Amino acid sequence: AVVRCSEAAAKSAGAVPVQTGVYSTAGMKVEEFFRDSIGSWRSMRSSHNLAMSFMEEVNSEIEIENVELDDEAVLAICKQYETDPATAATAIKMSWEGTSDWDEDEVLEGSTLLVLVKDEEAKGRLLRSEGYAETVPAVGEWTMEADGTFVLITPYERASAEERIWFTTPNMRVRVSFIRTQTGEGVLTASMSTEIREL
Amino acid sequence: AVVRCSEAAAKSAGAVPVQTGVYSTAGMKVEEFFRDSIGSWRSMRSSHNLAMSFMEEVNSEIEIENVELDDEAVLAICKQYETDPATAATAIKMSWEGTSDWDEDEVLEGSTLLVLVKDEEAKGRLLRSEGYAETVPAVGEWTMEADGTFVLITPYERASAEERIWFTTPNMRVRVSFIRTQTGEGVLTASMSTEIREL
Predict the structure, then answer these.
(1) What ipTM goes with this model?
(2) Percentage with pLDDT > 70 across chain A
(3) Shortest Cα distance, chain B CAs vs residue A125, angstroms
């Protein structure tokens, strides 16, 4: 996301002049996006259930680690998806641990291995190790948008997920996600996570 | 936002084939964006305070009404901002009433008149009637992105606001907002509103 605080707008409002944005992710490459994502993150997530009109808050710690492309687990995932390991551009392991405001005694935790396959410079597939909910691991389709947003669409049996992730500062990621009905016509849930890097 | 559930991805995951998206806002014009925004909306908003690590939930009713360009109030705002009323493309009145989970006895309400001025086809200024917090009404800079997202940057004395609003379905708007520090380097708050049209 580009910070577009222009001096012209500030002056016309009589406000103190604002410096033009110092941080822009325009043109960010997917490898850079993944590399900058490596680290420990403190996450706040708000989820909206549209049909039932309620919100949920989840606080988590997220760990993102680099995984070498010759790692056994990476090769195994490529094999499972009948994908040439040479097309894997990068891989990460994500682990999380958190609690929801619905039940603060229950710890929500898990981890997954993600392998990024490039079909084009700014587009490809994301292979994932088996999740806890689905019987068949889902393959996502990713694109890097011109403004540096990483977009991932993942189909499931009766729904699909759309995630949009971008850096608002070098140490903060924002993730906006939607779960849509199978036809794409309805949105079941919408979520926003703000993730602050632990330095 | 474009629904990009592809059959290829669905098949590769062994999932039931998903229809390609039926709703896309690619190429949406700003006049259409404003016109489709007219109506009554039920809003859920989650705000994240990044510095203090807490979240807030607000439930509101939002009313958006069309205002004719020859309305006295529109002419008055144009005059206040020394703007030729002929450059005003559309105007709306927004009113809201809601409660926060921090104090459900307090009603948060207000209204504002917004006048959209076009400087270019997909870019211009948004003039606003005086708000409740600032002494000087703020002028925002808006752009329509290629994917149909309306982006508004509004500078304030010691901060700036960035809002991104788009339709996820014809009857649902999503609004993601950030309050940034004056230099743009830090994000103070991030919010997501999901707004469902009351039919």
Answers:
(1) 0.85
(2) 86
(3) 9
SS3 category, A54: strand
d(CA A170, CA A108): 27
Mean pLDDT of B81-101: 95
**Cβ of A192 and B186 within 8 Å?**
no
**Average confidence (pLDDT) over B103-114:** 92
User: Higher-confidence residue: B91 or A8?
Assistant: B91
How far is A42 from A60, CA to CA, in rounded Å?
6
pTM, whole model, 2 decimals?
A: 0.86
Indicate the length of chain A as a whole number. Answer: 199
Nearest CA to A107 out of A97, A117, A115 is that of A97
How do residues B4-50 score in pLDDT, each as one tens digit? 334 444 333 333 333 345 578 999 999 999 999 999 999 999 999 99
Nearest to B199 by CA among B18, B27, B39: B39
Distance from the Cα of B110 to chain A's closest Cα (Å) equals 21
Pick the residue from chain B with its C-alpha nearest to A57: B55
Query: What proportions of chain A, in percent to the nearest 5, are helix, strand and coil?
Result: 15, 50, 35
Find out whether A163 and A169 touch, Cβ atoms under 8 Å. Answer: no
Q: Which of B55, B171, B175 to mutate to test the interface with A (most CBs of A within 10 A)?
A: B55
Which residue type occupies A189?
T
- SS3 of residue A114 by DSSP: strand
Contact predicate B88/B78, CB 8 Å? yes
Structure tokens at B162: 């960035």
* Amino acid of residue B167: F
Residue A88 has pLDDT above 60, yes or no: yes
Across the A:B interface, residue pairs with CB atoms under 8 Å apart total 180
Contacts of A69 by beta carbon, 8 Å cutoff, 6+ apart: A85, A88, A90, A91
- Token pair, residue A198, equals 């632990």
In sequence order, what are the residues at sequence separation of 6 or more whose Cβ sits closer than 8 angstroms to the Cβ of residue A155?
A138, B5, B6, B9, B10, B13, B15, B18
